């Protein structure tokens, strides 16, 4: 087996698609990112060129690596001959700065442990996540209000909410300039939606990373002053219904297992668990791959 790295996302997609589609929902994150790179939706947000690589033979990829700096390295694929594929992968990413790792537990855990043993990388679990899938929306009660696509006039709300979401859900501070850029792009793409009550936006959600079959719901946030009314549930339900009606076979979302409330809410809408995922953060800057 060898390490293959790519500059062209279309060629990379052609090589790894069949492997990733074997567990399509689990691999929605890398599949969606590759699609975004093909469609040139991400370049203005990247700090450096993306990493697109796999371990295997030319016709038989086994372990796939995707990273869009400054985001974490995604590890996905098959767990066959894992010790060998992980070892080759580590050799392949020498001299690459990796801020963290994310993937299904059965892949990311041994990868992180090997990094620690071979290179002295120190990590900590940043978030334990669960991947959910939705095929059909359940008929839950919807609160007062309606879903609509966010407009530029909503930017003043959405920028504040985006910053708060990053701090609350991801424990990450995000630069104001980047927030403005993300919100502007999300609104232009009609990806960000708000739940509106009496002309006032009270909650938001975003659709992201579409593939041929599925799409992810993310950025679900209600500011503290509007919580407790079911706005987020209604927003996610309505957005999920809209996406399925547009022709997507399924929707996915990631939840923080430390937040039982959101996990319960999404299951009531019709989302069901598929797999658990772990996000690790590198905590020492002195490491060297």
UniProtKB/TrEMBL annotation:
Organism domain of life: Bacteria
GO molecular function, one term: acyltransferase activity, transferring groups other than amino-acyl groups
Domain N-acetyltransferase: 145-289
Gene3D superfamilies: 3.40.630.30
SUPFAM superfamilies the record matches: Acyl-CoA N-acyltransferases (Nat)
InterPro entries: Acyl_CoA_acyltransferase (IPR016181), GNAT_dom (IPR000182)
Transmembrane segments: none
Protein name: Acetyltransferase
């Amino acid at each position: 087996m060898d390490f293959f790295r790519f500059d062209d996302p279309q060629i990379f997609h052609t090589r790894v698609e069949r492997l990733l589609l074997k567990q399509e929902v689990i691999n929605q994150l890398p599949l969606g990112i590759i699609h975004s790179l093909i469609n040139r939706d991400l370049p203005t947000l990247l700090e450096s060129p993306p990493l697109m690589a796999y371990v295997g033979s030319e016709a038989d990829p086994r372990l796939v690596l995707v990273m869009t700096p400054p985001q974490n390295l995604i590890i996905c694929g098959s767990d066959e001959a894992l010790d060998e594929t992980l070892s080759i992968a580590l050799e392949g990413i020498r001299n690459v700065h990796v801020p963290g790792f994310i993937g299904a537990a059965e892949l990311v855990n041994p990868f992180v442990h090997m990094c620690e043993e071979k290179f002295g990388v120190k990590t900590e679990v940043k978030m334990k996540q669960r991947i959910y899938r939705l095929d059909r929306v359940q008929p839950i009660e919807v609160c007062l209000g309606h879903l609509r696509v966010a407009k530029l006039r909503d930017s003043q709300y959405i920028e504040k909410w985006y910053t708060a979401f990053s701090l609350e859900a991801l424990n990450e501070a995000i630069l104001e300039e980047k927030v403005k850029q993300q919100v502007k792009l999300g609104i232009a793409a009609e990806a960000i939606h708000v739940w509106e009550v009496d002309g006032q936006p009270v909650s938001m959600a975003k659709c992201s990373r579409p593939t041929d079959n599925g799409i992810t719901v993310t950025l679900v946030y209600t500011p503290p002053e509007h919580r407790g009314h079911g706005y987020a549930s209604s927003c996610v339900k309505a957005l999920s219904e809209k996406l399925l009606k547009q022709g997507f076979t399924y929707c996915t979302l990631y939840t923080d297992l430390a937040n039982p409330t959101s996990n319960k809410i999404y299951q009531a809408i019709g989302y069901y668990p598929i797999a658990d995922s772990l996000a690790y953060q590198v905590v020492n800057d002195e490491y060297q791959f």
